[in-house]
Amino acid sequence: MEDIRYPPIGDYGFIADCHSMALISRAGSIDWCCMPRVDSGSCFGRLLDWDNGGYCRIAPVQAYRTSRRYLSDTLVLETTFQTETGTARLIDCYTLRAGGERRSHRQILRILEGIEGQVEFQVEVAPRFDYGVVRPWVRWRSSGEDYVAIGGADGLLISGEIPLDLHNLHDLVGRCTVAPGQRKRLSLLYRRPEWLDGNRLRLPSSTLLDKRLEQTLRWWRNWTAQGRTDMPCADMARRSAIVLKGLSYRPTGAIAAAATTSLPEAPGGSRNWDYRYSWVRDSCFAVNSLAGLGHVKEADAFRRFIERSAAGSADELQILFGVGGERRLHEYALAKLDGYRGARPVRIGNAAD
What we know:
The chain is of the alpha+beta class. The chain has 6 helices and 22 strands. The longest helix is centred in the middle third of the chain and has 20 residues, at 206-225.
């Protein structure tokens, strides 16, 4: 399998932590990721510009085949790579903890695990902040294998056991091999640049990263267990509920219509608006579904979000709000980005407010 340009949208996996969201291709590449919020500027965004948007890719050096699944009752994505020399899997998630919905780790965790034989992987981390506009200042931080990438108001702490080297001033590249039962971890921790510049953060250890994976699995399964199971197609309904939960913004109770911007309704079409906001009509359908599946807390949180955002008055109701309750969502275009398969303009904000 090759890392093709602009894979079909249906080939992407979705991960989230009820704050931020990311899309991961079958080639093990994070091609869309906005932090610290779903409507923030992208730090990996080659979904909208393959050459300039930025990405984080982990894939075998050799030719490979892939299969994917979500670990049961979670939004933790597992991609299995099969090569001539062996089989390994890549686990991707936003880390979560009990009580951490309102204040997230702001961390993507990527774990390589050998299954059989040996598989050599190529690792590439190419952050591009503010929708690809800012090529970050990437610096080696300490005696470990960690780097900081900073630029504008954004920053990433990149760490783990995978040896990485600076390439072309703005990117990190490396290789590693995994054998059966062996793990290699890559942590992408979002922090403001002034925090990273002062070396005030402790690196997450391998033990802590494994613990956060287990906490994330437990968090999702505990949440899923609160829903109903006495219904037709219960497994499919639970999976749909998990996706809707991933689209939610826990600090306020809002639910985003989509995790992306500027994807055309049809390839080559012009209907490519920014939908990373809470549309009242669409969100009502979502929360009605969640409530029907037993997740009434999400429905009540959305009700209170709308009441606050509309200042308690139907006269102040809009058709959409920002996920933080913002009312002014002015639209502008990023002329320098190619757009998904050339779909221009790349729209940020939505004039429908």
